[in-house]
Amino acid sequence: MRLSTRNQLKGTIAEVHLGAVMATVKVRLDGGDQIVTASITKDAAEELGLAEGQPATVLVKSTEVMIGVE
Amino acid sequence: MRLSTRNQLKGTIAEVHLGAVMATVKVRLDGGDQIVTASITKDAAEELGLAEGQPATVLVKSTEVMIGVE
Amino acid sequence: MRLSTRNQLKGTIAEVHLGAVMATVKVRLDGGDQIVTASITKDAAEELGLAEGQPATVLVKSTEVMIGVE
Amino acid sequence: MRLSTRNQLKGTIAEVHLGAVMATVKVRLDGGDQIVTASITKDAAEELGLAEGQPATVLVKSTEVMIGVE
Amino acid sequence: MRLSTRNQLKGTIAEVHLGAVMATVKVRLDGGDQIVTASITKDAAEELGLAEGQPATVLVKSTEVMIGVE
Amino acid sequence: MRLSTRNQLKGTIAEVHLGAVMATVKVRLDGGDQIVTASITKDAAEELGLAEGQPATVLVKSTEVMIGVE
């Protein structure tokens, strides 16, 4: 499936932390040392079988992205 | 100001496209060739004086991030 | 790619309206007469070649969904 | 109150799962078998008294909707 | 309809600016001089007949709110 | 850092509630008695050292704001 979602960044899962109904997942982006944190449902994390070291894509809709400048 | 926003990625503005009330801004992330697109208001783009080649930070709240795996 | 995105609803594109940098796309959900409207970038609408009558999936992260009751 | 929110889909609550501070609520859409999952605060779920079998409206702002095509 | 949406702030519309498919609406919050800007669809702004001086409620899901501290 | 984020409202933290991986933070806006609730990660709440009585800024991207009228 091709998605309208503009931002699809490649990386590797660095950490999965399951809570009660939510989970946080950290992904290290390829080609750098920048980390992206995702807050997703625990159900999603479990269904996808997310685990440290796994290749993953980080997806973000462009309307969710803010810009900061000095 | 320190922000609760988990994701603050460094990069350089690669393109600014102003529309009627919205604008799209593309930022090339440091340490790789990955591009992030932001849809922000035209007012914000103009007030910040965003321009190609300018260093910028991309900010995304963790609740807005999705994960994909093969 | 399998996505963490909880909501992936099947339907058919009913309308595509391109603006300056944004676009609105209406999708009629299968098995009912309910319509979902998406505001995406014009670039995404054009790259995907979205057109009336085309089957499409509507995706929404669960953190973006609100509930109302009488 | 009339809302700017474009997407207001009718359905019936199929499941409520309370966590520590968040809750997940599943709603079966009318006229089909499609399910929508919402991640809302536990406070909201409790204040609204959400319960299985209750009619409910699912609300999503159009800027939160993505489109996928084959 | 009662909503799960935690944030429902009262104010008065200070400005409506229609674009091609989007619109920006500024609302002055009651009891202060703080302004909130909303980016909604032009269709929503027109259907609601939004106009300067009109009382309005600003709604924001709690998962969309960030916190900053000095 | 100057941000594209249109909505930056001043207030004082009224409550911090930590969950398993998420937290809810309530902020009373200056110049009124209106409260804003934020759902952020527990990590963010802890790293910022958020505590009742602390001055704080509430940030919301304009694309996340909805409008309601009677």
TrEMBL record, chains A, B, C, D, E, F:
Mop domain segment(s): 2-69
Coiled-coil regions listed in the entry: none
Entry's Gene Ontology BP terms: molybdate ion transport
Domain of life: Bacteria
Keyword Hydrolase: no
A Pfam family per the record: TOBE
PROSITE patterns attached to this UniProt entry: MOP (PS51866)
Keywords: Molybdenum
InterPro entries in the cross-refs: Mo/tungstate-bd_C_term_dom (IPR008995), Mop_domain (IPR004606), Transp-assoc_OB_typ1 (IPR005116)
Protein name, UniProt field: Molybdenum-binding protein
Organism name: Mycolicibacterium sphagni
